[in-house]
Specification:
70 residues; two-stranded parallel ribbon
């Protein structure tokens, strides 16, 4: 509910809008797209690529997110 009035940071193809992400100056960006992460990293934005293939991958990702966000 708190996000409904926030700016959408996706492009028309539902991919990440890199220019809007850069303008938002986030502390970190979570993405599933390696090329987006590489682009943002090259611009000085910290990124974390989340990737899972099956249910066993979820727990380590949740642990990683806990470490990132404390």
């Amino acid at each position: 509910p708190n996000l409904k009035d926030k700016e959408v940071l996706q492009d028309q193809n539902k991919g990440p809008d890199v220019e809007k992400l850069l303008a938002a100056k986030p502390d970190v960006v979570l993405t599933m797209d390696k090329s987006t992460a590489d682009t943002l990293d090259s611009k000085g934005i910290k990124t974390v690529v989340l990737n899972w293939k099956d249910v066993d991958d979820v727990e380590p990702l949740m642990t990683l997110l806990g470490e990132i966000f404390g």
